[in-house]
Amino acid sequence: MKKKLKWVGLGLFGLILVAVIGFLVWTQLTYGPTEEALGYAAEATEVDNRLEFGDPKSEVGIILYPGAKVDKEAYAYYGSRLAEEGIFVAIPSLRLNLGILDIDAAEPIIEAHPNIERWIVAGHSLGGSAASGFALENEGLVDGVIFLASYPISSMIESELRVLSISGEVDGLATPADIEASREDVPSDATFHQIEGGNHANFGMYGPQDGDNDSPLSAKEQLDETIARILNWL
Hints:
By secondary structure, the chain is of the alpha/beta class. It is built from 7 helices and 8 strands, in the order ααβββαβαβαββαβα.
């Protein structure tokens, strides 16, 4: 009996080990940046495995959490364009490429840049949910949250955080129905904007994404509208 239990235990351990290894491998199969995105990433300063754009003494700083399994360089266009408008932008690498496992990624960035007067956390897809988790736990450090094809990790109704939600009309992952439902979890004065023809992947520059719908827009076209809305909201 003991021998049988030993083999059962070893079998279960083996299954768990295989599952863990499989999960770790899956997290490393990321969506890489396009050549265009790499060009914008070259404008950044890389510090402690994050990209930084603009003047670290700017009044406003935005910390952008990448979407699940998407390389940070795919979001470099945000940094390039927003830096031109006088906004400091930091895009961190996330633990195992999953924002939900690195919710506090914004903390060391804020600590490293004490001259920034006002911080906004933002994120694409799962990254936006992770950013909202940080904001809810650190309302004294953060003024607002920008959701890009995303929604809160938990209710924000009782918070005083400003909220901007930008979504895509044909998004196959964070669907219009999902975004509409998220209105129940954000303050009543939250700003919502839907990009006509916008999809999920075009909130970054990394090419098509599994489960998403095709868009008539290029990534740059969708990003330009997104950035214009961000600037107007700020």
